[in-house]
Structures are given as C-alpha cells and as structure tokens.
Design a protein that fits this description.
The chain is an alpha/beta fold and about 200 residues long. Helix content is about 25%, strand content about 25%.
C-alpha cells in the first residue's frame, strides 16, 4: 500500500511517499509563505509523481491558507487517482515526532497560532491526547503546561514562561507520518483551524 502524505498546514511544507510504512522519498522546507506555489512541484518531483493508493493530509491547526492549500491538493489528487483520502492533525504528528526521540514521556505541543496566541495540546506518555487543541495566550499556555517535554515551534518560548522542561523545536514533517497510530487518521478530513474565525456574519435581525 502506497501513501502520499501532504503537510502544508504550518510554516513548514512537506511531502512524502510511504510504502508499507517505509519512506520512499520526501522533502520538507520551512517556507512561512508560498505553500501554494511550492506544494505541487514538490509532489511532482516524487517517484511516479506521487501517485498512490492513499493520500494523507494535515488538516491543521495552523495557517488558514496552508490548511486549505493542502486539502485542495489532496482532494483533487484523490479524485483523479481514485485514492482513499485521510486526514491527521498537525499537533498529533509533532507529538509523535517528539515521542520517537523520547519514548514513554508525556509531551506538551505548542505551535504558532494567530493574533499572538499559541496552539496548545497535551499528550500522555502513550501518545494519546489528554485534551483537545486550544488556542491560548502565552500566559494561559504556561499555566496549562506541566509535561517534562515541550515540542513545537513555540516550545522554547513556552519553556521560558514555565521552566523545567526539555524543549524540541519541531514542525510537522510528512516524512514522519509512519510514526502516527492508525487512530490518528480521519476518513472524512475537514479543516481544523484551532480557533474561531476572525470574520463573522452579522447577527440575524
């Protein structure tokens, strides 16, 4: 079974081709912006242009544009190839990457959010989530964080606020998808923005 992994939900943009749990090829770049221009050429550079039986895509939370770019590409390719489409969450992948380095240890994942907030989620030592993803102020994230390991793009900043933790500056990387358990995947992937939208419809009269 061959899987194309697409991850463009955060400041990093990555793709990978996985066959039976083994990485065949992949690429990861920290872009910040420009995911739409970079993603398709990255997929095209993979063996067989990434053609796969399954497409797994990062549904967020992260950048509004990055999430939508990844999902649009994944849905288009799944339709063209008749492939199965699955989704996974960015913080879950970062937690799995952290626990691959430090097994059986609880991890707090802290990633860049919007409007000065951070996306925060705690994971048990077995990799299962302790709570849902929350968009928190730095002070609130510091109050919630107790794990001995902090991972993510804001791990260092969070550790400064609370102290006493090992920090891992990690961003989602499609090449690490085999670290995820089967329970981490959604069969009907939809965007997970992690916070309420900034724009709202006017209240009904």
């Amino acid at each position: 079974m061959r899987t194309l992994v697409i991850d463009s939900a955060t400041e990093s943009c990555s793709v990978a081709l996985i066959e039976d749990g083994v990485l065949i090829a992949g690429e990861c770049a920290v872009l910040g912006r420009g995911h739409a221009e970079r993603l398709v050429p990255m997929i095209a550079s993979l063996p067989d242009k990434g053609r796969s039986d399954v497409i797994a895509v990062d549904i967020g939370p992260g950048s509004f544009t990055g999430i939508r770019v990844g999902l649009a590409a994944a849905r288009a390719l799944a339709m063209a190839w008749g492939a199965k489409l699955q989704g996974y969450e960015s913080l879950t992948l970062v937690a799995a990457m952290a626990q691959a380095e430090h097994p059986c240890v609880a991890v707090d994942v802290c990633m860049t959010g919007g409007h000065g907030e951070w996306f925060f989620q705690s994971f048990n030592a077995d990799g299962s989530p302790q709570c849902d993803v929350a968009s928190l102020s730095p002070d609130d994230a510091s109050r919630h964080s107790v794990a001995p390991v902090i991972a993510g793009s804001q791990a260092g900043a969070l550790a400064q606020g609370r102290g006493g933790a090992l920090t891992l500056d990690l961003k989602p990387d499609a090449r690490c998808m085999p670290l995820l358990p089967s329970s981490a995947f959604h069969d009907d992937p939809r965007p997970s923005y992690g916070r309420a939208p900034d724009a709202r419809l006017p209240a009904a009269a």
